[in-house]
Structure prediction request, 132 residues.
Amino acid sequence: MSKCKFYDYVNTNGINIIKAELDGLGVKVKAKITTKLNALEQMEQADWRGSKMIEVLKGDKDGLLAVRAEWQGVQHRLLGYYGPERGECTLLAYCTERGGKYIPKEIGEIAQGRIVETDVNPAARRIRHDFG
Prediction:
């Protein structure tokens, strides 16, 4: 039984943004990210902060967390936040990181906007993450 449930952001056109991004990655990097998400689902959210799989972000990305995965020198990141309900994490966006900078550079602003949309109408703006 999972201790945390992951959800994916769904845009106004009904597209699961996280699924679309992960499906565009290679099979091996997608598997690496999925393995990390599976492991995190089995942990209490309070224990995530000590994990190297998660980074709690600050500055223009304050309130966000990044699920971290490295594959062949590329730092892949899934940005999300705790919520909107207790025991849930909603994945909002995918990006890469190079030299401490997120690409695209406006990803923090994009993810923050998606938090607002998700909090206002969680039933319309998210779907349970598909680990398949």
